[in-house]
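Researcher: Quick test of sequence recovery. Tokens follow.
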């Protein structure tokens, strides 16, 4: 498997940096780099400023590396988030540099680019993968035709790799509990062990007409055979 960097890390377009977080990489103190650009337009997306790949960036890679160098021994991990980090060819170079400083590498991804994700696997220690819906229902969320196929393909590749993985689904407000349960059970069937359901933050959603969730998230627990996962988490928005 070859993860050789092909594009310099300097060209990574960065829309934001969180210098310390305890919630974005399980059990580790981490910094989060928000990569600019995403090919999808999910109705519930609350990162609208990160969607345009050509938008102004807030910090450049050299400043990030300077910051990370100063944080060696104080932070455990660097998480690449977005936007969609794998949309940028410079990601592997950036991950290699951060890894070279001794940090664990985490990735938050929608799985939009399974082949790029496959090439990144040797650089990754942990992945948070959004699985938004069953494959046939993706387009209604992302606005992009055929978006379910690459996402589920990415899931297969991550499961095959054995890398530490959390799969997350954001609950669309118009779904019923049995619809949510169908997604959860499909994920358990393909071997997902660590699964989280997240509430939808409709106040900051890209689609301003998104209604509020029709039921409290905790009510879903009764419809889902949570015992089929080694770890099952409900996160309110
Ligand atoms: S994939 Fe993520 S960043 Fe991209 S539009 Fe959807 S929610 Fe937003």
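Model:
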């Amino acid at each position: 498997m070859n993860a050789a960097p092909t594009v310099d890390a300097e060209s990574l377009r960065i829309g934001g940096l969180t210098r310390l977080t305890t919630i974005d990489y399980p059990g580790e103190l981490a910094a989060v780099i928000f990569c600019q650009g995403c090919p999808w337009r999910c109705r519930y997306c609350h990162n609208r400023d990160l969607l345009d790949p050509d938008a102004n960036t807030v910090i450049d890679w050299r400043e990030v590396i300077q910051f990370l160098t100063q944080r060696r021994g104080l932070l455990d991990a660097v998480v690449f988030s977005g936007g969609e980090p794998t949309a940028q060819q410079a990601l592997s170079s950036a991950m290699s540099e951060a890894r070279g400083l001794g940090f664990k590498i985490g990735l938050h991804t929608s799985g939009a680019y399974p082949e790029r994700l496959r090439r990144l696997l040797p650089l990754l220690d942990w992945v948070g993968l959004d699985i938004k819906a069953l494959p046939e229902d993706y387009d209604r969320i992302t606005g992009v035709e055929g978006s379910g196929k690459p996402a589920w393909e990415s899931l297969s590749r991550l499961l095959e790799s054995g890398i530490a993985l959390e799969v997350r689904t954001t609950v669309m407000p118009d779904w019923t509990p049995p619809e949510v349960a169908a997604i959860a059970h499909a994920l358990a069937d393909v071997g997902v062990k660590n699964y989280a359901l997240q509430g939808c933050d409709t106040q900051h959603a890209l689609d301003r007409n998104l209604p509020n969730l029709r039921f409290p998230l905790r009510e879903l627990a009764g419809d889902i055979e949570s015992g089929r996962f080694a770890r099952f988490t409900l996160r309110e928005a």
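The radius of gyration is 17 Å.
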